[in-house]
Amino acid sequence: MLERIVVDEAVRELRPDFAVLVMTAEGLGNGPSDEVGEGWLAEAAQAADAGDPHVEAWREAYRAFGAKPQRTRPSVDALLRRADALPSINRVVDAYNAVSVEYALPIGGEDLDAYQGPARLVRATGDEPFDVIAGGEPAVEHPTPGEVVWRDDQGVTCRRWNWRQCVRTRLTEDTKNGLFLLERLEPYPLDRLAEAGDRLAERLRAISPGVRIQTRLIGGR
């Protein structure tokens, strides 16, 4: 799976400095949020820095493909703005949200078993399906042509690089195998990206001692 994940050349041309640390975690034992995860979120909130240069780098990346980051914020920007009041979701989501806030780093978490084919980061044509819940009912939206999206063979899994995930691949309490995308732009150091990956792996092992974790760095220089 890891070797089949790709970043399209059109995205590389847009931001040659982009790198993503891809992580798979097989054998997760997820479940409802608990005091441990809530503690991680509270600890991360103490370290949160909404002025981190990495946040502005992501705003610039959004502007480069036509998005307005004041309206649809990069995930790390949105998380840092409400770091003191992040809701608990489930054990695994709490773990990666805490790492995202602590390290000022966009992190996506997906249910690997819900994927149809490998993940790939591309610029959208505009006709790809993106499944959501609207007004309490399932609905299908479509990205803007040229928008940077993560997708698989079935459709878009995350719009505007890391803004909003689809319903189909979201992590739930029943998720057994996860895919995590830790995304970096300059001036964010690659060694800090690796450190964030190690922290996430540590948290996942605390939740599921028998979890099997593999990583691969795509991009970076």
Give structural attributes.
31% helix, 221 residues, four-stranded antiparallel beta sheet
Describe this structure in words.
There is one protein chain. The protein is α+β, with helices and mostly antiparallel strands. The chain has a domain at 2-6 and 17-113 and 170-219. The chain contains six helices and eleven strands. The strands form three sheets. It has a five-stranded mixed sheet. A four-stranded antiparallel sheet has the order 3-10-2-11, with helices on one face. A two-stranded antiparallel sheet has the order 5-6. The chain is globular, with a radius of gyration of 16 Å. The protein starts with 5 loop residues before the first strand and ends with a strand. The mean pLDDT is 97.
* Low-confidence parts: none
* Coarse structural class: alpha+beta
Which overall shape is indicated by the principal axes computed on the Cα atoms?
globular
**Major sheet summary line:** 5 strands, mixed
Specify Rg, calculated over alpha carbons: 16 Å
Mean pLDDT: 97
Q: Count of helices? A: 6
- The helix-strand sequence is EHEHHHHEEEEEEEEHE
Distance between the termini: 23 Å
Q: How many β-strand runs?
A: 11
* Overall helicity: 25-40%
> Could you tell me the strand content as a percent range?
15-25%
Question: In which order are the strands of the major sheet placed?
Answer: 1-4-7-8-9
